[in-house]
Design brief:
The chain has about 325 residues and is α/β, with parallel strands linked by helices. Helices cover about 40% and strands about 20% of the residues. The protein is built from eleven helices and twelve strands. α2 crosses α3, α4 packs across α5 and α8 runs parallel beside α10. Bound molecules: ligand PBG. Ligand PBG binds next to α6.
Length: about 325
């Protein structure tokens, strides 16, 4: 074996030429992250002055409306254009009636955010699981979530968000026909400019664990397999996306992100509509926990996962890292 540096191979293709310096690597970079693609989730609770950290999600807090306004203003200043609101009501009942209450945390937060923060895009999660005493995403009869009556409740919740001033409503329940019902309800009431971001391909995932602690929405019995997608399926996800687009979804969402990048790529490829991905609570908690033990370089894996999600086809990313990533990109 020649060890001398004068040994030369007659290569015409030397891909390493374009990896020589950071400037060249940057010139040929195919995927760029910018803060404009981040959506920052916030958990809104009752009360004032409340800022309670979620144990399994370091850096994520349950916030009362005043604190949510502060947090969103800070995020906006960091360059994050949008927030996604989840409500954690004090009182829950079997039909999740607080979901459409104009004075519940989410509706109050929407009004405050639209009033206080210029140019902030306010998106609201539409689901019943945070509002029902049993923690299910709809109205339960026996051990079944009854689809059509649930859809009526969801449409009323979405309407209450639109009335409060939400720019975009985001149904995350995976009931059949909810996008059409929400679109019709909003249009009938004059909210034809409120957009719908549907969680079109939402998988039945173990990665939602920490969220359920944050939103206090763990089902008291059973699970969500009767409506969320089987992790083994991709054709079924594409059918779901197609249905939601036909029903009027303006943006479609794939969730979780990292274990479903193939689904995300196919959705973007096939439908070519604005596509979002949700880097969910468990994905975030996993990185945080490993980083806390010194097992991963957090900054690096944060950017690596976000870049991967974007490379796979996401136009926008819902992530608990939104502020941190936006700040690091400045
Ligand atoms: C349902 C909803 C869930 C998440 C977003 N919307 C939980 C579930 O389906 O159980 C999970 C988000 C996350 O894990 O970060 N309202």
């Amino acid at each position: 074996m020649a060890t001398t540096t004068t040994a030369k191979l007659a290569l015409t293709r030397r891909p390493r030429r374009l990896r020589r310096t950071e400037a060249i690597r940057s010139l040929v970079r195919e995927t760029r992250l910018t803060p404009d693609c981040f959506i920052y989730p916030l958990f809104v609770v009752e009360g004032a002055g409340v800022r309670r950290e979620v144990p399994s999600m370091p850096g994520v807090f349950q916030l009362s409306v005043d604190q949510a306004v502060q947090e969103a203003a800070a995020a906006r200043a960091d360059g994050v254009p949008a927030v996604l609101l989840f409500g954690v009501p004090a009182e829950k009942d079997a039909s999740g009636s607080a979901a459409a209450d104009p004075d519940a945390p989410v509706q109050s937060a929407v009004r405050a955010l639209k009033r206080e923060i210029k140019d902030l895009i306010v998106i609201t999660d539409v689901c019943l699981c945070e509002y029902t005493s049993h923690g299910h995403c709809g109205i339960v009869e026996g051990d079944e979530i009854v689809n059509d009556i649930t859809v009526l409740h969801l449409a009323q919740a979405a309407l209450s968000h639109a009335v409060a001033g939400a720019d975009i409503v985001a149904p995350s329940d995976m009931m059949d026909g909810r996008v059409a019902a929400i679109r019709r309800t909003l249009d009938e009431r004059g909210y034809e400019n409120t957009a719908i971001m549907s969680y079109a391909a939402k998988y039945c995932s173990g990665f939602y664990g920490p969220f359920r602690e944050a939103a206090d929405s763990t089902p008291q019995f059973g699970d969500r397999r009767g409506h969320q997608l089987d992790p083994a399926n991709v054709e079924e996800a594409l059918r779901e996306v197609e249905i939601d687009i036909e029903e009027g979804a303006d943006i479609v969402l794939v969730k979780p992100a990292l274990p479903y990048l193939d689904v995300l790529a196919k959705v973007k490829d096939r439908f070519a509509v604005p596509t979002a991905a949700y880097q969910v609570s468990g994905e975030y908690a996993m990185l945080k926990a490993a980083a806390a033990r010194g097992w991963l370089d957090e900054r690096r894996v944060m950017f690596e996962t976000l870049t991967g999600i974007r490379r796979a086809g996401a136009d926008m990313i819902i992530t608990y890292y939104a502020r941190e990533a936006a700040r690091a990109l400045r």
